[in-house]
Design brief:
Mean pLDDT: 89
Structural class: alpha/beta
Number of strands: 9
Number of domains: 1
CATH topology: Rossmann fold
CATH superfamily: Vaccinia Virus protein VP39
Distance between the termini: 39 Å
CATH class: Alpha Beta
Radius of gyration: 16 Å
Oligomer: single chain
Length: 222
């Protein structure tokens, strides 16, 4: 991140961040201890900040998923669920079998208080960690917004816990799909046959009035 700026999966679109704000410096490197500490603190103002910054990613992803996944009984895992903003939007469009995973105890407390998730687990989403979920556990495994903080190499694990006829869904700024932090990893996994890209929605007003990309991948397991 640049000084006093918070990038939402984009090198072009930023919002001003005070020097003492817990979001300052997030995303420079994924250190689970630092992430936990900063998000525990940020939880106090997180929902208000997201609204103030005009970040509509959770709503846009939920709207897209409602069209792509007509079965509202589908099981969904919200990666980096934070305070539950994505879960709230999924609930509004009819999805109710939603679980969450996050590293911040304070964020999890707030998300649980919204009564929109079946279960929320505290787990480390580092790319070298194996999540506690079994292979093919979910119809959809989604990452919305947290992509600015997490290493996309973790996608191998996200694909593992997605059903072979399901979707691993990534919601980012449209500009981020071609960034050095995302495109090389996605291209590598596609070329290795670990997954296939089955759909992409380009949506308006994702963040700060800019467009977003919601990409649906399907795992390939032999």
């Amino acid at each position: 991140m640049a000084d006093n700026k918070c990038e939402d999966c984009s090198h072009d679109d930023t919002v001003d961040i005070p020097d003492d704000h817990p979001a300052k410096g997030l995303g420079d490197d994924y250190d689970p201890n630092v992430m936990k500490e900063k998000f525990d603190e940020w939880s106090k103002t997180y929902d208000q900040d997201i609204e103030k910054w005009n970040y509509n990613g959770p709503k846009r992803v939920a709207e897209s998923m409602s069209k792509i996944i007509p079965d509202k009984s589908a099981t969904i895992l919200d990666l980096g669920c934070c305070t539950g903003l994505v879960g709230e939007e999924l609930s509004k469009v009819g999805f109710h079998n939603v679980d969450g995973v996050d590293i911040s105890d304070e964020c999890i407390k707030l998300a649980k208080g919204k009564n929109i998730y079946r279960n929320i687990l505290n787990e480390d989403l580092s790319p070298d960690k194996t999540l506690s979920f079994g292979t093919g556990s979910y119809d959809a495994v989604i990452l919305v917004g947290a992509g600015m903080f997490l290493d996309i190499h973790g996608m191998k694990e996200w694909l593992r816990i997605t059903k072979t006829d399901g979707y691993t869904v990534i919601g980012v700024m449209e500009s981020e799909t071609t960034s050095d932090s995302v495109k090389p990893v996605v291209d590598e996994y596609l070329s290795q046959g670990l997954m296939e890209k089955v759909h992409e929605d380009i949506v308006e007003d994702y963040f700060q009035g800019k467009s977003g990309s919601i990409v649906y991948f399907r795992p390939s397991r032999k």
